[in-house]
Structure formats: structure tokens, C-alpha cells
Amino acid sequence: MITRDLRLTPSASAKKLKINNNIQQKEITSPRTNSKEEVSDNYRKAIFTKRHLFTLAGTFLLLIGGAFSVYMLQPQFEEMNLSRMNTIGGMILLIVGSFLLIFRMSFLAYIAKLFFQYKPVNSVTDEELPTCTVIVPAYNEGKQVYATLLSLTNSDFPAEKLQLIAIDDGSKDDTWEWMKRAKEQLGDRVSIYQQPHNQGKRHALYRGFNLATGDVFVTVDSDSIVEKDTLRNLVSPFVTNKDCGAVAGNVRVLNNEKAIIPRMLNVSFVFSFEFIRSAQSVLGSVLCTPGALAAYRSAAVMNCLPEWINQTFMGQPTDIGEDRAMTNMILKQGYHVLFQRNAYVLTNIPEKFSSLHKMFTRWERSNVRENLMMSKFAFKPFRNGSKSGTRLLLVNQWMHMLTAYPLFLVMIVLLVLHPVLFISSTLLSILIFSSLPVFFYAKKYNISEAFWAYSYSIFYTFGLFWITPYAMATANRRGWLTRELPQKK
To answer: Could you tell me which residues come within 8 angstroms of residue 90 by beta carbon, excluding any fewer than 6 positions away?
Structure first.
């Protein structure tokens, strides 16, 4: 394989390098943060425009209108329910619906119980920190990869214990030029490599894993910014827990200042990571270590690396879901997978619907594949200790997928036969069930941003409901879907 390796001699002392880093940071347009307090401050400063206010006002009008309609249409609801109970199909639907509701509520209560038991691991001392290799794969990332590398070198992590590797996966834009600029700026603190052509993120990471020398491997997406204490917080569980095989970071949205979709997803991410993954971490079974920020015990990675790089699905090489696949393979070895709430990373997400649904489709296809893989070992004695919680997490994943088609069909039927009743009851359900992430975000950060959870639920329910059924039907398809050149602004 023909590859390019650029190694430059440092052009300045460490003191001068630090000064230059600070100067270069001023050129970066993406926001950076250095503490948990500053993370929340970043969201408090998010701009509210007339468009935002109009969107939120429209959200509340819809939800309140839906709740009022349900109240006013009670006779019609009662008539519809009575007619259902007079048919076998209606009775089956009622029984199945009640079971699913009870299961969901019981599972949520279980997750809430686990959440209150969760505590992140405090950072260990510099002497205790393991050697760490950070791998940053990049494709068509442009200037953002430069910001990512600078944020990593500004970490509060002993420089002598940190190896930083950046790999350009055959980009078609100026990503390589920005990597070379970072190399000139940072000297021996970073090594940069270029793939001969675009082979996919998995292959870029594979090369990085083989070049890595640290006791812990950390992967960071090239459109992400880490905080100063992120790395040391992320790898500390490997010191305090010998059974820890992988750690998931706490992902927040970087580009949430103006665009509505990132703003909505930021609230969703907080609930997904700080509530759901906190609970999963108590069980030692976080199901997915995110590509934006994850850490792996090097021995665990090397044990499964040949299987991981050669993974196939329905006879074809797998080029998506590398993070979930690695998590599965580490769980299978008997290791625990944890979540570090105090290890923050800010990452860019799509701002347009076309890119967003492609990203969600890729994620769901990966879930289909990896749920199948996990099912092969989860019900076997794959590790010591209790495994019932891990199995329940997998069962919940399957419940979500197995009910996708029936719920989709029921929704279509109700929308055709009873459109007003269906829409109004759906809006009332969104108002009730979305209040949990709203309250969660409001308590941890601020109430004004929390209301975006309502908007996101409406957006997903009526705009992205088809993702899971479609992903299940096309799970064998390959392709990243969103790796096109970024649009110039």
C-alpha cells in the first residue's frame, strides 16, 4: 500500500508552541470550551431569532391545540374505542398496545432508577494516567480538522503520555493542507498520514490502531472539539476499573447557535447521553461508544481487530457502524463498557433535513446489524456477574425494531380513517412524554433551550417516522451517505 507520512521537526520551543497555539485558536470560528460551566454557558448564549421564536410558538400552539382537541373530542374517542372492542382485531390491538405501554413505562422507570445510581469516575493523577493514543480520521473536513487537532493538544494531559495521530482518508478538499498546517504548528506532538484513496472511516481507524502505542486508544471525529479535561476524564475509568474495556464520551452539539435542527438535537443528545447512557453505564453495558469520542483498552481492540476490519453483513464488507461494532466485540470479550459524563466533546451535526435523515438511516442500519450480532452472545455467559440488565437493554432494542412495521401500519390506517383523532392524540402524547427530556435539560442547563425537545418530537414523529422501517428493509445496503464535500458558506 502506498501511503504518505509527513514528519516535521518542531520549529519552536514548548513555550513558543503554547503561545502560537493560542494565536491560532483565534482564527478558528468554532466555539471552544474549557469547563463544564463553560459548556452550559455556550448554550445560554445561543441566539434566539424571530425564526426560533416562531418555531417554538408554533410548537406550543400545536401541542396545546392537540390537548384541547382531545378534550373536546372525547365522545368521538369513546365511540371509536367501543367499536374497536367489538371486533377481534380491535381487542388484539388494545391488548398489544397496553402491553407495549406498560413495557415502555416499566423500562423507563428501570432506567431512571439506574440513572440515580450513576456517578462519573473522577480524574486520576498524572502519574496514574495511562499512555494514550488519540486517532483522528478525517474526510472532506477542511479547516475543522485543524481546530480538532489544536483542541486535543491543548488538553490537560501529560504530553509525554499522549500520542496524536491524524489520518486523511483520501479527502477531495483541502483537509490534507489543514493537517499539514497543524503539523507545522504542533511539530512532533502530532503525526499525520494520508490514505492513497478514500477507503472509509473503518480503514482509517484500522491504520491508526496499528500505529498506536498507547495503553488506551481514543477515537475522535475530525469535526469535534474536546474540552481541556476531556481526555484525562475519559481514560480514568481504565485505571480504577480493571474490567473496563471501553468508555463513551459525552457528546454535545457544536453548531447549535443558529440552525434549528442542531438546536433541537442538542437537547436530544443530552437526554440520550446523560440519562440513557448513564443508566447503561451502571450495568457496565453502554451499547455504543460514539465515534465523536470514545476510548478503548488497547488489548481489547487488538484482540478483535482482525474480526472488526473484516466484518461482513449478508456477504458484503461492512463500511458503517464501526463504533457500535467495536463496542459489541469488546462486550463479547467480557469487558465492561462505561460512560463518562464529565468527558465532553462538541461535534458538528447536519443542519439540513436531507443530510439528517441520511445520518439517521445509517445509524439505524447499524443498529439492525449490531443487534443481530449482540443477540449471538448476549444470552450466553459472556462475562462474570449479572447479565440480566444487559439482556434487557437488548430486548428493548428489539422491541423498538419489531414494533416498527406494525406501528407504521396502524399509524397509516388511523391517519386515513380518523385523521383528526389520530393527530390530536399524537400531539397530546408528545406533550406528555417529551416533558421528561424537557425537565431533564431544564434542570441541568437552562429552561429556554429545553423546550426544543417538544419541537424535536414533533419533527421526528411526523418527518422521520419512516427511518426505522426503511433502515430495516435496506439493512444490507452499504455507503456512508453523508460523506460528500461540505457546502461552502
So the answer is: 83, 84
